[in-house]
Design goal:
The complex is a heterodimer.
Chain A (H helix, E strand, L loop, with lengths): L9 H28 L4 H4 L7 H4 L1 H7 L6 H9 L2 H32 L4 H14 L2 H14 L6 H26 L2 H9 L4 H12 L1 H17 L2 H6 L7 H11 L5 H37 L1
Helix pairs in contact in A: 5-15, 6-9, 6-12, 7-9, 9-12, 10-11, 12-15, 14-15
Chain B lengths: L1 H15 L1 E2 L5 E8 L2 E8 L1 H10 L4 E2 L3 H4 L6 H10 L3 H9 L2 H32 L3 H16 L2 H12 L4 H10 L10 H29 L3 H9 L4 H29 L3 H5 L9 H9 L6 H33 L1
Antiparallel strand pairs in B: 1-4, 2-3
Classes of the chains: A mainly alpha, B mainly alpha.
Chain lengths: 293, 325
């Protein structure tokens, strides 16, 4: 690899490094800026007089006697009861991931092992449903939910999110199971296993990488969803993302913008940790779909 | 899956051809000492009885599709006959909500997608030359804009771009115009949303292309070099053809995703200047009135749009499948 022909001339190298640096700043700077600013008062975060105020926090110092303040966080978490939204989000995410993985694993396995023509149509329908914007389906759910008095509670939202998520899970796990050789189940069956036993004792031990990757993406979908949760949940049951949107709608007054900033930082933190630990899985999940087309 | 997605779809289509019942009117004649007076009131009991009996509302066929809020056939026809020049015609049409949002959605989709593909490819090529240790860090950072919740990501950028935020300030300083506000003009709002769209989806393209670069056959590059190809020519004639299937894949996925652009509009508070189809649905559903049928109609129209965008993929998959059988 380190042949002379492969070496880059200096100006090209400088160009590449400059470009990478620019991209890294573009991608990361907004997050660090907001994290830094979330510990300031609004006058510093939105500084009209002098932009360096946002770095030094002079107004924050004048108000609280220190350049960092947790007022925004206290306001968001305690005064506006953001913790409730956080708990709701974890409930929704947990159940969505569990349910859709259970259905997706069984369904994906079955589809990958059956050779009938209808599997193609099922998968194509799944792909088409995946392409639909979730919000177009919401209006279909609303009327029956109003009629049956199911609107506004968490279980129905979980069901809807699972339904929206299912095509994607099914598609992804289907292609994952197809990469597990059929010989594995066949040899198990030769040894006297039934189809289900083959799945239980042979496939389940080797399927975890694919399942974890799919689970990650289901989690992201449930966590990031705004359209469905904001429409289907009543005010008390809101998850984090609609809650933040509600902050903006109702409390655009002095000081309360900082609540929203603090809430945004709090909601981003779990995603940060997730990317840190599962970077490799996320990358492989994204490319798995691509390589197979 | 069939139950929970296909059934709502049917429900959406059903709703879109119905509308709320008209109130039942009762005319009562009150005769007093000063002569008789006819009074028309709404019979609340009868109205709610009908509404309860048929919650869907009355059947109106395709009327909602053609009304002013959606396809606006009458208005378009009138504009076509009454205006002389094409530009005036388009201006009139641009004031109708459906066509306005359609214009934004299409502009957004077809600007963001090519730009993000080019940007993603450039990042992938650049990252590929880095040493192993920096690579991991760069990939980690690059994933952030994509993983973060769209609404939150757009809020973060929105705060920075506010005329009092750091980017807003910088732009004012660069343009030497202290009153410049990105939120006030339609064109700048569109550009802002498009920049956000690229920022949000470029990492996806990057990751996919980067994975593709790992499978690049080195001997092809080498033989190209022996034949005297410059670096640019290697990229142009060897690497890009090798990545072509991935480029189509990313383009299709992003076309579909950008077509349903919605959260950034809420996050950037840009409803006044830019509306997308999804936003119209959201707006109809929300608020006090909850115009279910209007929203359902827009949904059906959006679904048709998605289907049109998706048809090449379906065709290709069908060909693949037939080949396999």
């Amino acid at each position: 690899m380190s042949s002379i022909a492969n070496r880059y001339p200096v100006h090209l190298k400088a160009l590449i490094y400059g470009f990478i640096a620019l991209w890294v700043i573009m991608a990361a700077f907004p997050f660090f800026w907001t994290l830094w600013g979330s510990f300031k008062v609004e006058l510093d975060f939105f500084s009209i007089a002098d932009w360096t105020n946002a770095l030094t926090g002079s107004n924050t110092f004048n108000t609280y006697g220190s350049s960092f303040t947790t007022t925004g966080y206290r306001g968001a978490w305690i005064q506006e009861e953001f913790w409730r939204a956080a708990i709701n989000t974890s409930i929704v995410c947990f159940f969505v991931v569990c349910t859709s993985l259970t259905i997706g694993t069984l369904g994906g396995y079955a589809l990958s092992r059956s050779g009938y023509r209808y599997t193609f149509w099922l998968l194509i329908t799944a792909l088409m449903f995946r392409a639909l914007p979730p919000i177009t389906l919401v209006s279909g759910y609303l009327l029956p939910f109003f009629e049956w008095n199911l609107w506004g509670i968490l279980p129905t939202t979980i069901i809807v999110l699972v339904a929206i998520n299912q095509p994607f899970t099914l598609w992804m796990l289907h292609s994952f199971f197809q990469s597990i050789p059929k010989d594995l189940d066949e040899s198990a069956k030769v040894d006297g296993c039934t189809q289900f036993q083959a799945f239980r004792f042979v496939i389940i031990p080797v399927m975890w990488p694919g399942v974890i990757t799919t689970g990650l993406f289901s989690f992201l979908l449930a966590y990031n969803d705004f359209a469905v949760t904001s429409m289907l949940l009543s005010d008390d049951n809101r998850t984090m993302v609609p809650k933040i949107a509600a902050f903006l709608g109702t409390t655009y007054t002095e000081g309360n913008v900082m609540f929203a900033v603090a809430a945004v930082v709090s909601a981003t933190a779990p995603l940060f940790i997730l990317v840190m630990f599962f970077q490799r899985r996320i990358v492989s999940g994204l490319t798995a779909g691509a390589v197979k087309g | 899956m069939l139950l929970f997605i296909a059934f709502p779809l049917v429900s959406v289509v059903l709703q879109s051809v119905h509308t709320a019942h008209e109130a039942v009117l009762v005319t009562v004649e009150n005769c007093g000492p000063f002569g008789c007076k006819k009074e028309t009131t709404i019979d609340q009991d009868a109205t709610s009885a009908i509404r309860a009996a048929e919650p869907l509302g009355r059947f109106v066929g395709l009327d909602i599709y053609f009304d002013r809020g959606h396809l606006a056939i009458a208005e378009v026809k009138q504009a076509w006959t009454s205006t002389e020049s094409l530009s005036a015609f388009f201006q009139t049409i641009g004031n109708l909500p459906f066509y306005r949002s359609m214009a934004f959605t299409l502009t957004f989709t077809f600007t963001v997608t090519p730009v993000l593909i080019v940007l993603g490819l450039m990042i992938a090529l650049a990252v590929n030359t880095l040493s192993e240790r920096i690579k991991g860090l760069v990939i980690f950072v690059s994933l952030l804009p994509m993983i973060v919740t769209p609404l939150i990501g757009s809020l973060i950028l929105f705060w920075m771009i506010d005329s009092r935020g750091i980017l807003g300030n910088a732009i004012q300083w660069l343009a030497a115009e202290p009153d410049l506000s990105l939120k006030a003009s339609t064109g700048l709002t569109w550009i802002m949303l498009i920049v956000y769209g690229v920022w949000h989806s470029a990492p996806f393209a990057f990751v996919v292309f980067y994975a593709g670069l790992q499978t690049l056959p080195m001997d092809q590059i080498e033989s190209a070099r022996i034949d005297g190809a410059s670096r640019w020519e290697q990229v142009r004639y060897v690497i890009i053809p090798h990545l072509m299937p991935l480029i189509t894949f990313v383009a299709l996925i992003q076309l579909m995703d950008n077509f349903r652009v919605f959260e950034p509009i809420v996050g950037f508070n840009a409803e006044a200047h830019a509306q997308s189809l999804s936003w119209i649905i959201f707006n109809d559903l929300g608020g006090e009135t909850r115009q279910l049928s209007a929203a359902a109609t827009s949904s059906v129209l959006t679904i048709i749009g998605v289907a049109i965008l998706l048809s090449p993929v379906l065709w290709r998959t069908w060909q693949d499948f037939k080949g396999k059988m």
